[in-house]
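Annex B. Sample input.
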Amino acid sequence: MAEQSKIWFLEEVDLFDILCPSKTPNMEAKHPPNQFKKDEFIYFPDQPSSSIYMIADGRVKIGSFVEDGKENIKAILGKGEIFGELALAGESKRSDFAQALDNNTRICSMGIDDLQDLMKDNQTLALKIFKIMGLRLRKMERKITSLVFKDARTRIVEFLKDMAEERGQKVGFETMIKNHLTHKDIASLTGTSRQTVTTVLNELRESNIINFDRRRILIRDVAKLA
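Annex B, continued. Sample output.
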């Protein structure tokens, strides 16, 4: 897997111990970990952007509300991933919301001032944080381009390919993705319907290109995803 892909997973780039205050000397008292119930909001739009967050357990949905009150889902993140990072880029108020998707979702938070102090003393940490921000921005740009120019089936297939690159683990000639997304989640992230996602995934399974259950997606041959 490419190094850029691994950057998304903090446990793989040794940032977990740094960004979880309970593992950083003198930080736990200032930034105790928080626990959230399913559907509980971690922050809302227009709240001050004063912290960056990391998921210790559970899943978090990042999105915004459009004019008719519907949700625009931008990301569904899991253990080891960060969010709220735009505070480092000068965002004064949140433009998105963050919502827990599982019971007992545990979040580590760190104030921006403390994180900036750590980054001043650790150039490697600073580089990795900025790479995460850059990768997330490029991913959002690809999503916008896909929504404008590509049909539903292509968006779903490319979503699977991106997941394979970012999260996949090689099992022989196949690629296994630990899956925490429902068909509804994939539909929200690809701008399609749940029925379309189900239809496309079933077609790919019938063609022996993928296999899947509630916990994983197994891609037989990434090159055949088209």
